Amino acid sequence: MPTKMKPEKWAKAWLTLREFLSLGILLSVMASIASVPTDITWKAGDGYRFASVFPEASGKSGFSRIAPVDSGLDFTNRLSAQKSLENRLLENGSGVAAGDVDGDGRCDLYFCRLEGPNALFRNLGGWRFEEVTQEAGVGCDGQFSSGAVFADVDGDSDLDLLVSSMGNGVRLFLNQGGLRFAEQFGSGLGGTNGSTSLALADVDVDGDLDVYIGNYRATTVKDDPVDLRGLKLIDGRWQLPPQLKDRFVSAVDVTGRAVLHESGEPDVLLLNETGGRFRLASWTDGRFQDEEGRRLEDAPRDWSLSVMFRDINGDRQPDLYVCSDFVQPDRFWINQGAGRFRAMPRVGLNKTSRLSMGVDFGDLNRDGLDDFFVLDMLSPSHELRMRQRGNLTAAMFTDYTGRHRPQFMRNMLYMNRGNGKFGEIARLAGVQATDWSWSTIFLDVDLDGFEDILIGNGSLHDAQDLDVQNEIVRQSAASVSRRLPYSGRGLMRPLHTPNYLFRNLGQFEFAEMGREWGFASTGIANGMALADLDLDGDLDVIVNSLNSGCELYRNDSDAGRVAVRLLGRGGNSRGIGARIRVRSGGIEQSQEMICGGRYLSGDEAVRVFACPGSVDSVQIEVLWPGGAVSTIREARANRIYEIAEEGAVERSLESGLESAEPLPAPLFVSRLLNHRHVESRFDDGDVQSLLDRQYSRQGPGVLAVDLNQDGWDDLVIGNGAGKAPDLFLNGQGRGFERIEGAVPSSLFPGDQTAWAVYPGDSGDSVELICAVSNYENRIGVTNSVLRFRYSERRLIPLGSLPGWGDAVETLAVGDVDGDGKADLFAGGRMRSGRYPEPASSRLYLRRNDGFVEDFGNAEVLKDVGLVTGAAFADFDGDGLLDLVCAREWGAIRVFLNRGGRLVVAGETWGLESFAGLWTGVAVGDFDGDGRADLVAGNGGRNTGHQVDLGRPIGIVFGDLAPGGPFFHAKTHFSPELSREVPYRDRDSLSEGLPSVIDRFPSHAEFGRAGISDVLGEGWPKTRRLEARTLDSMVFLNRGGKFEPVRLPLEAQMAPCFGIAVADWNGDGRPDLFLNQNFSFTEIETAPFNDGSGAVLIGDGTGGFRALSPDASGVFLTGDGRGCAVMDWNQDGWMDLVVGQNNQGTRLLLNSAPKGPRRE
């Protein structure tokens, strides 16, 4: 721990620093230190100085907006109607930069303007500013200025200015002192690009700041047409002549139509040489590599809007995220060292936003890892969403398990998993839709230790309005005027939407507080930046809005805080890229010092941390980019700390506030079994229109069973329609042997959705039962429940049980009638072509060496629902096996056994109020009380439905007309319309209801209609099911009543299918494994594939905690289905076999006996 330095020794310490540094850098630093505001007093420490702050007692959180008449910030970023019609790209707006340019200790502001000069405002203190643009020489008049950042690019410790523009590239102004700047020519910047956002970091770790410039275009062919001569349509694709290859990309859309996408301009990475001069880095010399490590053949021509450097993997190398508009992909470049970048593999980030705008990184759940958030343009308003959505084909399904990274028009929130990979959870967090959003910032507004989310909104023209687009097309067809596209664009209405502020409640739960916290102003908020404008130790917000005055928000929080500024060595004088960790009140927070990276904007170089605990127990640690560490162990709350890199201690990468310990071994070791499930090609849209997922993708089922009775568990793995199952014999823990030709594939016309084992009549064989679905065989074909006996490496058919018309997905074995022989339950999953009409299930009683249908229980199982899982257990303690069924669009249902007669458990058992999209169920005693508890898989919180669960979501269905197709539509309650509305838009819904186009000529009319209006005369002919929860849960049996317990976040990130119950870590308590993900959705629905296989450790009282992928050793990105528990090598520890649809089967070996377990 550093010793406290007497104040008179502080100057001597800084004199030593001056002698160490070259070029007089310290003199500039000390000059800025000397010119401090009179309202704060600096005191010296060992390697730092601090000033106490005195937050005004407000008793509230949020912001107060400071009026221009009070602040003197009389600035408006203007764009005339004519200019916006001539060049629509200018509507991206402009930004703001924050920084102390005159060294007086107060943060000044620089605003960009599209038409007219930019403006520099000097901070006078007391929330007063004066414009000093002219004397500073930074007006940049005569260009469309877009973005700006203050940064020390020449290493002299004062802040220089970079300004980007649409058509004039980037200009650099070096700070000459005394509020005067000189433009630096020949710096390597400039050009004619349509440049947007800027980010700076020391990418090659040479001690100074390099610059990454995001480029868009200065103009677009939509406003400034180009010569298309030579363009030819050949074999269904546009063939580009040489002069157009840099301007367009030829592609085929989801309907197979040939399309041309306009390309953007290549971004620019400039490496800092010295004195504000830069060297252009090449895209094609190996500095940038693709996912496989190959050098790029050409520079990406994207439409970059935001760029941000951030060290996301803890190696102290700045990585880079680039938000790209339109169809060009976002880029996530991982720094490999020395400023060489490699694209993040698809498995690390499996989807992105379609029209990416702004981005920010931060540790949202305080686990020490940076998560990040990307903005798009999806509206939370049902009415707006219905008229802004695209025209998509409802019956077209997409496989999202391939190598490409699909894009979706909504915000994306990425949770850092700690293994270099991210899970996307915006829908789980409820932040997926925030209108036409430009800029986002993570800021702990209420200083509770959790960073909240700020979002700037609005657009000059709602270019997504489908009705207006249709009208423009109509007018264009009727006119010969070449200027009609301009007047047509003038038909578009402005989209003035409020800003958003999401309060972070922890565990990725958020509450929208924009209005309550004074941030929900309405307009067009583009660039946004943070700064401590009043030196009270918290961060205020500055917004550059289009065609309205700039906005200044004073942070009113009075909670404890610590602000940190940095004094770096060499050219990186603000310590950009340093990681700051603060521990206070039992919590640890971490942030990184950044430069630029905001949408068209840049913050002041200061970071603020909450101090909710004791003001006498604050620790600050700075991990400098060069590898050294500075530590203050006796910091105090309500202070601003300025920490110097000089004197920092060299330390390894793993060092933190406490010494790092060796990482224990993971719980499981994942191995590929020499097996891949093969799914048959099938288009569910041929069976039924409007399905949002492929219900033909339910396999494989996995069964662990000792086939050859040698005492070692073997495997049976189901396959797709027309294919035989795969059998594997256990080589006594040395491997598995596949049995070839064990059974003819002709016996399996449908998917093998479930397998079960039944004790054979002789001691040397076992009986297997297989459910074969008829879903893909159309209506009228019965399902099959097949029986087999294993003998001498073959499955011998024993016949089939009486079938019925519903597809079967679930089998469960248990003695229902008490005769000592196990009976069989077969759960009806759905009726082909009539989803979600409730299906019937059946019970078969064992008689002699076969089964007979139990007609006595037929009525209670008739139309019981869409059964997705079942199990037998004694829930009421009477010694008889009861039955539990999981149901989609229904509640978990328990059937109590009354002497062989099944009776639905009453409402007092507490399950009926938990209607959900349940996907499976298993049994275990999770609280150690001797009663059978339940664990049930559900759709998960990470769906587009979670935000609507203030009221139940629904699904309506029925035959609307004699002989017509069966209709169904998901619905939710719209608070803005006070009625039940459909999820699907007009054009999509017309695939199953063609009359909707005639009944609602405009999308706006449809957007205001409820589902009863949409269906009209057909409404009385429909039925409705509902879901109230999408959480996967444990239900603890309290003796006649079940108590619900929500499973951890990791269990909610994707639908759960297979469920395994076993003691993984040997503590005598049951643990869980959930097999997750569903990727086969129609093109309008993003896949539900952000699970990785959840390993949950039980605490013996009914609670569970999730292991990280590193701790569990499990990271499965495929579509998990069935799974089975087995002790593969008979070491006494339970292993797992995990099936994945159309992908490889995994064997997860429990590594517990081989070393310490990481939990």
Task: Give a written overview of the molecule.
The protein is mainly beta and 1159 residues long. Helix content is 8%, strand content 38%. The chain contains 15 helices and 83 strands. A 5-stranded mixed beta sheet has the order 1-2-48-41-45. A hairpin with a 4-residue loop joins β9 (160-165) and β10 (170-177). α1 (7-20) packs antiparallel against α2. The longest helix has 14 residues, at 7-20. It is globular, with a radius of gyration of 32 Å. The two termini are 31 Å apart.
Provide the spatial order of strands within the biggest beta sheet.
1-2-48-41-45
Number of helices: 15
Distance between the termini: 31 Å
Structural class: mainly beta
Return the average pLDDT rounded to an integer. Answer: 90
- Nearest-angstrom radius of gyration? 32 Å
How does the overall form come out from the CA principal axes?
Answer: globular
Largest beta-sheet characterization: 5 strands, mixed
Q: Poorly predicted ranges (pLDDT <50, ≥5 residues)?
A: 1-38, 391-396, 482-486, 655-660, 1154-1159
Beta-strand percentage range:
35-45%
The percent range for helix content is: under 10%
